[in-house]
Specification:
Elements (H helix, E strand, L loop, with lengths): L10 E2 L5 E7 L5 H28 L5 H12 L4 H40 L18 H27 L9 H6 L3 H4 L3 H12 L3 E2 L12 E3 L4 E5 L14 E7 L6 H9 L5 E7 L4 E9 L8 H5 L3 E6 L3 E7 L5 E9 L6 H22 L2 E5 L9 H4 L3 H8 L3 H15 L3 E4 L4 H10 L11 H14 L15 H4 L64
Parallel strand pairs: 9-12, 12-13
Antiparallel strand pairs: 1-13, 2-8, 3-7, 4-5, 5-6, 7-8, 9-10, 10-11
Helix pairs in contact: 1-2, 1-3, 2-3, 3-4, 10-13, 14-15
Length: about 550
């Protein structure tokens, strides 16, 4: 294919494996908040100690050490809280381990790119598949020094990976570093301390199927009553039997409330997490549970009525509807979002854009085609050099957040999602579709053309637009009619389906000329199907 990489086949994205809903705990008294502070701080200190023990064990950790960690925590809290703490700490250690491996791969890619560019002459041009040399001797020298720095970092990261040593901060590394830059963060020491303590508290418990209301540690009844099993050192604070404390606030889930009520009524497992928003002074309750994987529809079924091709960009979603033959219908739509501000604001912007897209798809009963994007290896400064604006552009695209939101929201509405390979969609879309779809009243952008290319690839059609036949409609005048009629196309000269009834004034039904038979063409020296042929008699004399 002239150096082009192989394009992966499209596939229907499977549905989510879990559900998470959140509600605010309104009406908490001062005593309730005090109890939550005490319980969270106590369990948070135990979690910090357990994290240190887990990190010290490294790769030698086994089930016996896990059981020993749980026994130590049980003596200072309870068996249920100890189980929740050890499992959460183990998951946190595993997450840090995966992040460490991703960091090693990123450093390897940077070292490999710099070595390649340093081996080339200064000023040598690059290609689409490989970068060229550096632009000046000054840049070459600076990158040679950076290569030594990256090699040292890679050596240290590999040593930590092989030894099983990870560096984890309960509360977050970013918040920890903010302590040294309070003026730049516009925070006082008291505000930072409140965030730090809120991030290090531990108030979460896994669900247990068969237990009352699906969770014995943090119990929420169908009518919204929230109660906690107090640890042994705080058992004197109980206001309910069996060492439990009942909060004055009532919990009600506006989203998926019926599903949650069905689970707790049937005593199926539901995990809960209580946390505080230190900036607003509010407490929230998060409920989560696993769901069986939804059965994805076959690919051909999702393609049956056409689909909507969606191109993801840094500030909007470009979408265009296509029929099942790959033809664009109607006008393209654009769903914008603003990714500046806080994380909650960005998440709300993405969710609002997806809601409008899904309402459009549901109204027409169509599937959605998106690119299977992953920029984890594309944002390196070594890959794109001085193209800072481009690096910032692709780094700001909400790829993972949009993918997670889209999969969960489409599963709820029953809309299939088809993922396609993102290779060359923007380039080929602009090449084959941007100009033909531009008119006097419509200006087609490069992103709109990319949405058409994504939709055609999801439908199984080539991105290249079908060209018009020649004006003469004859192969001897202008060659073959379309790009589909190449020698490799089977049946390109096959018979066309017959249409009942007479097709011309002089030819009856069923007596049409056959385009395959060259003798059927009205050409000099050729006979036609509807003309009679008779051999002339030989002359008897001159």
């Amino acid at each position: 294919m002239g150096g082009l990489r192989e394009v992966a086949a499209p596939f229907v994205v499977p549905g989510p494996s879990g559900v998470t809903v959140r509600t605010r705990l309104k009406g908490l008294t001062v005593v309730d908040e005090t109890v939550l502070y005490l319980v969270g701080d106590l369990l948070g200190s135990l979690a910090s100690r357990d994290l240190r023990a887990r990190c010290s064990a490294g790769l030698e950790h086994d089930s016996g050490q896990w059981a020993e960690r749980k026994r130590v925590l049980t003596a200072e809290s309870s068996s249920r809280w100890a189980g929740s703490v050890t499992k959460a700490i183990h998951d946190q250690w595993a997450l840090a381990r995966r992040g460490q491996l991703a960091h090693v791969h990123s450093l390897q890619a940077g070292v490999r790119t710099i070595r390649h560019r340093l081996s080339l002459p200064v000023g040598e041009k690059g290609s689409r598949h490989a970068p060229g040399g550096y632009r000046s001797r000054k840049e070459w020298f600076a990158k040679s020094r950076r290569l030594r720095v990256l090699e040292d970092r890679l050596r240290a990261a590999r040593a930590d990976w092989q030894a099983g040593a990870v560096r984890v901060v309960r509360g977050g590394k970013r918040l920890l570093n903010t302590r040294h830059h309070l003026e730049a963060a516009h925070l006082t020491h008291e505000q930072w301390r409140a965030r730090w303590q809120a991030g290090r508290r531990f108030l979460e418990a896994d669900g247990e199927s068969g237990k009352r209301f699906g969770n014995e540690t943090i119990r929420v009844t169908p009518d919204g009553e929230v109660s906690l099993k107090l640890p042994a050192p705080l058992a004197h604070l109980a206001n309910a039997p069996h060492g439990r404390y009942v909060l004055a606030a009532k919990a009600s889930f506006a989203h998926r409330g019926e599903q949650w009520a069905d689970r707790v009524t049937s005593n199926r497992a539901v995990a809960y997490h209580i946390h505080e928003d230190a900036d607003r002074g509010r407490w929230y309750l998060t409920a989560s549970w696993t769901i069986p994987p939804t059965r994805t529809v076959p690919l051909e079924t999702a393609r049956a009525n056409g689909l909507i091709g969606v191109d993801t960009n840094a500030d909007h979603l470009a979408a265009w509807r296509l029929d099942r033959h790959g033809n664009p219908l109607g006008e393209p739509l654009r769903f914008g979002y603003d990714l500046t501000g806080t994380a909650s604001h960005r998440d709300a912007q993405v969710r609002h854009a997806l809601i409008r897209l899904l309402h459009w798809a549901r109204r027409h009963g169509l599937a959605i085609a998106v690119e299977d994007l992953d920029f984890t290896g594309e944002t390196s400064r070594e890959k794109h050099g001085g193209r800072k604006r481009f690096r910032k552009l692709i780094s700001g695209m909400p790829v993972s957040r949009l993918r997670a939101r889209l999969v969960s929201m489409t599963a709820e509405l029953g809309i299939p999602v088809i993922a396609v390979d993102p290779a060359y969609t923007s380039r080929w879309g602009a090449q084959h579709w941007q100009k033909p779809l531009t008119g006097k009243t419509r200006k087609t952008t490069r992103h709109d053309a990319a949405a058409v290319a994504i939709g055609r690839r999801a439908l199984g059609h080539p991105i290249r637009r079908r060209t018009a036949p020649p004006r003469t409609h004859q192969s001897d005048g202008c060659g073959h009619r379309t790009v589909q009629a190449e020698p490799v196309a089977p049946g390109r000269e096959g018979n066309r389906p017959r249409v009942p009834g007479p097709r011309t004034r002089s030819v009856g039904a069923g007596r049409g000329a056959n385009a395959v038979d060259q003798n059927a063409q009205h050409r000099p020296g050729r006979s036609a199907e509807h003309e009679s042929w008779q051999q002339d008699s030989l002359p008897l004399s001159l």
